[in-house]
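Support reply, case 0932

Customer input (verbatim):
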Amino acid sequence: MDTKKPRRLLPVIIICAAVLLIAAIVVAVIIITGSETDIVKGTHSHTSPLPALGAKVEASQDYVKVAESDNYILYYYEPRFSIRLENKKTGAVLDSTVSDEKDDGRNNASWTAYMKSGIVLTAIIGTLNTYQVDMNSVQNEISTWYTDNGIYAKIHFKGNYDFELGVEVALSGDDLTVRIPDESIAEHKEGTYISTVGVFPFLGYTYLDEQDGYMLVPDGNGALIYLDNKEGRYTTGFSGLIYGIDDGMTNRTATSTLWEHYETVTSANTVTAPVFGMAHTEDEQAYLGIVESGDERCSVEVVPNGVMVDYNRCFARFLLRDVFVQPLNQSNSGTVPAVEQDRLHSDLAVRYRLLSGENADYSGMANAYRSYLLDTGKIQKRDTSYNTRVDMLGTERESFLMGTVPVTMTTAGQVGDILNDLRGLGVQNILTVYKGWQSGGLYDVPVSSFGADGYIGGNSAVKDLVKQQAELGNTVYLYDDALSVNAATHSTTYNVMKMVNKRTFENKTHGQVYDTFYYLMPGRSSSDLAHLTKDISGAGIGNIALAGITGTLFSYSSKGSYYSRTDTMDIYEDAVSAADGSCNVIAERPNAYLWRYSDAFLDMPLSSSDYMYLDREVPFLSMVLKGVVPTYSDYVNFEANKKENFLQMVESGVYPSFYVAAEDSSKLIYTNSRNLYSLEYTSYRDTIVEYDTALRAIAEKTSGACIISHEVTDSGLAKVTYDNGVVIYVNYSGSAQSDGDVTVDALSYTVKGGE
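Our regenerated output:
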């Protein structure tokens, strides 16, 4: 019996040894990779070496370090395709997925899977665009390799989908870049397509009000959504397609009108800049997201807690393919859903510029975006000298019997008289956009050659006007809507845009004379613009104010082929670039990809669309462009609260704009411009002088300077700081407010420094 005892102990010894070996391995893994708890606390070793370039990231049940810069460490958790960014100095982290510890357990399986996936797709099967594809609820296979500063992951979604894509994630300095190469995207199953791709939809998320801070919304000039507890008040957040809706895919909603002619609702702002942001002010940690590629078909999603789940999140969602409504016949009496023939072909790329310390706020985001635009050549520094903008209306048309008759509002000679009068009152260096200069009036579009209306004096009068005013320091630009075509004045047989459903797009205006306009084909817009700029340059004018194509982007069909917003964007960019090469170009509310070609940004919004979930408006775009590209407001004439509007210009550094005419506005009552109820120059003469005197004095102190900080003080004053030391305080309240040794009267402002 004694001889059998050792045999009974042998399995126990082997088991103990195995346990000790496993424990040693676990300890080694923890030492090498660090546990999730250690990473959160910032105790992970910053000096551990990274595997060699091209090595495969081994499967792990925890985050592993994959890249490191001077200020940040990038960790990666492969099963959920999740990343974590740790600030090396503070230990603060930004997570891209909701951890199990922070899951409140109140969400259904679909939302739980969404929150815990670093990439989320939606899929179209047949014509139904209702399927969620994520790393948790859909069978998938992922392989990841180390790159020199991050990872490359190849993801294969299986089951009902059979999608493949590759994702590059890289940490370089204070920038995190995420890129999905176009060639890596594959749809292997017939009739099953990728619709949207959401990249790190929860990066930097917060739960209810656990963190002080806000999210940056690119609406209007800019707005913030605070990270406080919204208590379930909202059912939706901000969702804006960059560069506006796609008229080639979506029929516009009918404008609300009074008596079918007067618009009663102001349209919402479009997203002109491909940016969004998250700021954790308590942890002094933030990022600015910049959509670098695929922006022409990408939406910015900024969603406060309480909308479906109790987490604040913002992200970019790329639209690869969509479902549209296809009429069955010419009368549109029946429709069926149809899927786009082809998907978006573009790399999908987002750059996250990481900000910390005193830079972790919306001012830091604005400074970061300005630096990015200048460093990449996406904007060029222009002459930002102060000018008051005084636009003028030349001619319109009203109906008469079987045709139209001219309504002349301001001849070329009268434009000169008005500008000379203002010069005598001390208003110098005026920028003027002359609208309705062309033969046939304001709405006789498109314009492809220099032919001034005889009722304003003809070509010679316009040329003399531009030349004479240039000698006096004023600049006159000819207005050109390069997008629209009026079927009542021009042939539309071959030149108008057809939507992807092959129906001609119509832009209903409820105009008194011209009710319907169409869009020109992009190629025709380009050729018309080329002819016009060559013509006016040859006439010695060389100044053009572009509209239409500067703020519109669409998909379209032509001769059985489909063309994407990418195609339209490329054509428009080439056209505006060529125009900039032959003329001085200023642009009406231009999309960001055209900023580099414009000498000025016209019609800069000073407020947001006033959505209920927006907590505060900030002059974000103005902060970005101030000191680099001059910006001009919407027309002061039509602002209901002129005092507040004036203070907004003081705060943002935007220059004022007026729209005037020599004749009384009552002459326009039977024209398409009947909504311009207040134009007569004599009514605005004193206001123009008043604005010019006040704003020019501020501009002289801030000349060439950039805004580096914007904040609201404890006393409620808006405080704007320039990089030359000038500080402007603006008081919007009805009583005097003080901040330290500065007191600002009610509805007023004070400028410090710059003497």
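We compared this against your earlier run and they match. Two observations from our side: Residues 5-33 form the longest helix (29 residues). The domain at 389-712 is CATH 3.20.20.80 (TIM Barrel). Please reopen the case if you see a mismatch on your end.
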